[in-house]
Amino acid sequence: MRTRWCTSDVVAIAVLIICAVVVISLITHR
User: Fold this and answer.
1) In which region does residue 18 sit, left (phi positive, over 0), alpha (psi from -120 to 50) or beta (all else)?
2) SS3 per residue for the chain
3) Residue 15 and which of 5, 22, 26, 30 are 20 to 30 A apart at CA?
4) How many angstroms separate the CA atoms of 26 and 5, rounded?
5) Residues 1-30: pLDDT tens digits?
């Protein structure tokens, strides 16, 4: 396993987390 992450990997994970948070917030606020 790689100990160092590429910038693209970090960005992809950040985008996935942000999307998940937005979806959860939209569902819970309804």
Assistant:
1) alpha
2) CCCCCCHHHHHHHHHHHHHHHHHHHHHHHC
3) 30
4) 31
5) 566 778 888 999 999 999 999 999 999 987
Instruction: List the Cα angle 11/13/29 in 5-degree steps.
Output: 110
CA dihedral for 20, 22, 25, 10, sign (positive or negative): positive
Q: Which two tokens stand for residue 19?
A: 């999307």
Per domain, the residue ranges of the chain are: 1-30
Whether pTM > 0.85 for this model: the answer is no
